[in-house]
Amino acid sequence: MTEQQAILQMQGIHKRFPGVVALKNVGLRLFPGEVHALMGQNGAGKSTLIKVLTGVESIDSGDIILSGKPIRPHSVFEVQELGISTVYQEVNLCPNLSVAENIFIGRFPFRFGRIDWKTMQSKARTGLAALNIDIDVSLPLSSYPVAIQQMVAIARALSTEAQVLILDEPTSSLDEDEVERLFDVLRRLKAKGIAILFVTHFLDQTYAISDRITVLRNGEFEGEYLAKDLSRMQLINKMVGREVDESSFARQAGDHADKAQTGEPFLAANHLGRAGMLRPIDLSVYSGQVLGLGGLLGSGRTETAHLLFGIDHPDSGSTKINGIPVKLNSPRKAVRLGLAFCPEDRKTEGIIAELSIRENIILALQARRGIFHFIPVSKQRQIAEEYIRQLGIKTSDAEKPIGQLSGGNQQKVLLARWLATEPKMLILDEPTRGIDVAAKLEIMELVKTQCCKGLAIVFISSEMSEVLRVSDRIAVLRDREKIGELDGASSDEQSVFCMIAGSEA
Ligand SMILES: Nc1ncnc2c1ncn2[C@@H]1O[C@H](COP(=O)(O)OP(=O)(O)OP(=O)(O)O)[C@@H](O)[C@H]1O
Ligand SMILES: [Mg+2]
After folding, report:
1. Of all atoms in ligand 1, which is nearest to the CA of residue 50?
2. Which end of the chain lies in a sparser environment, N or C, as judged by fewer CB atoms within 10 Å?
3. Beta carbons within 10 angstroms of residue 289's beta carbon
4. Which ligand 1 atom sits nearest the alpha carbon of residue 41?
5. Nearest protein CA to atom 19 of ligand 1, as residue
6. Strand, coil or helix: what is 299?
7. What is the pLDDT of residues 331-350, one digit of tens each?
8. Pair 274, 366 in one domain
């Protein structure tokens, strides 16, 4: 790996958006046969660097050199032609088209002047098989969960003969198994001499796959390192720009207070289920406690959340809130009863890109009050600014369109939206997806503070360590069924996985 030629080099890149300098004199070098991790906090400029490289955004100044020749890409297609294939952070596929069509958009195979559907579908199946995914490729993309959609986006990027492959947070909604499959594919591509650029907030993944690391901080180039020469601690400090003790992320396990489960639960679900979706389960959620839902992808965590919040209707069982039987048959009803739900897919279920940050924050609160109780704009601004401060949302102005925030900061706005309704029970589905290490800690702190104030929380995360860290109790799910419950304070990953695997801890 010594002194070889970079296949792609970016130098002195500047990019300014109205009111923000997103990139200041940034450089990047990609080498053939290497995985290069691009690291930095939310809003550091990672996605912007990828967008200017791939023609989604124009650059203000700087040079991009591919195989020794300067390029100045103006469109995504132009860049694909040059052999650069990209998976963007916000999956930009068409939900209404079939999986196969999504993989081959813009390059449909033709036969006798017509689209050759058969070839397209069989090629799509082969592409997904490389990722160990076996699904009906003729169904619309939207009929599959986010993780599968993410895999489809990856299969699409892999289906072109690229010499450079770019992946912006491709693993944010994948579970460990799927990440491993993706990494297997990346290792194969690496062995073929392809240069890979990879963005993630999971440090374990960075170190599992990367040869080289570039760190951005506040839109500036902080440095380029060989992964083997940079410790985790050094990496965090370089991203954050100050000394952060990563052990503080782990230490919180001890703070599970001895909260006795006295009295009634806030919400009690008895034999709640829906055929084909979730086998009947019993769940109790107590005020002032975090109930974690543990389990692998597809185990029924999100399905449970959807039933609790009235998005899907149970066909068995009953629910009580404060001991009184309720029918949670719509999200609107759930909100009226004091429930809030922060969904995992911020793009389709969450943010409204055209609205301002303030409007996005105020949305659920206004809906709860009803249109006849309009919240005055000055009051809206006050609420929005309070949450921007509390959650450390990186923006200069609450009036900006939320679409201009970095991915992680959009996630924080979603969280703010639901906290602003001052709910009695909050369901968080992957709340730290795409959130950087330091902000993750802040969000978990915030969850716990709200909990101490008496909020009941249902917490879903594919990171088991995170579930263990915040949860007072953990309901463990497997194959769309609850298989048991564990005490948060006295359990570790081993005990959860043992339960999932079906053996005694
Ligand atoms: N279209 C846009 N208009 C205005 N500002 C933007 C736009 N896109 C990005 N920005 C700003 O540029 C900065 C860098 O954002 P970018 O999305 O590159 O961050 P990131 O490192 O990818 O963060 P994350 O980890 O949250 O995805 C942020 O301050 C963001 O608000
Ligand atoms: Mg990003």
Report:
1. 18
2. N
3. 23
4. 25
5. 43
6. coil
7. 889 988 999 998 876 665 67
8. yes
Cα of 50 from ligand 2 centre, angstroms: 9
157 and 203 inside one domain: yes
Whether 248 is in a domain gets the answer no
Whether 142 and 270 map to the same domain: the answer is: no
C-alpha of residue 417 to centroid of ligand 2, in Å? 21
Mean per-residue pLDDT of the chain: 87
Question: Closest ligand to 51 CA?
Answer: 1
Domain that holds residue 229: 8-243
- Return the CATH number at 444: 3.40.50.300
Distance 32 CA to ligand 1 centre (A): 28
Ligand nearest to the CA of 201: 1
State whether 238 and 272 are in the same domain.
no
Query: How many Å is the maximal CA-CA distance in the chain?
Result: 73
Instruction: Tell me the average pLDDT across 236-258.
Output: 58
CB-based contact 267:456 (threshold 8 Å): yes
Question: In the structure encoding, which two tokens stand for residue 257, read together?
Answer: 């207070």
Task: Tally the residues of the chain.
Answer: 505
Q: How many domains does the chain have?
A: 2
**93 and 33 co-located in one domain:** yes
- Res. 211 pLDDT band, cuts 50 70 90: very high
Q: Which ligand is nearest to the CA of 20?
A: 1
pLDDT digits (tens, 9 = 90+) for 21-54: 999 999 999 999 999 999 998 889 999 999 999 9
- Check residue 3 and give its pLDDT: 58
* Whole-number CA gyration radius for the chain: 23
Output the pLDDT for position 207.
94
Ligand nearest to the CA of 49: 1
Instruction: Work out the average pLDDT over 362-383.
Output: 88
| DSSP characters over 403-445 | GGS-HHHHHHHHHHHHHTT--SEEEEESTTTT--HHHHHHHHH
Residue 406 CA: nearest ligand 1 atom is 17
The verdict on residue 251 lying in a domain is no
pLDDT of 92 reads: 73
- CA-proximal residue: ligand 1, atom 25 (nearest): 42
Higher pLDDT, 321 or 299: 321
> Residues lining ligand 1, judged by CB closer than 6 Å?
17, 20, 22, 40, 42-48, 89, 394, 404-409, 436
pLDDT score of 504: 43
Q: Name the residue of 15, 17, 442 to mutate for ligand 1: max ligand atoms within 8 A of Cβ.
A: 17
Report the 10 Å Cβ neighbour count for 402: 25
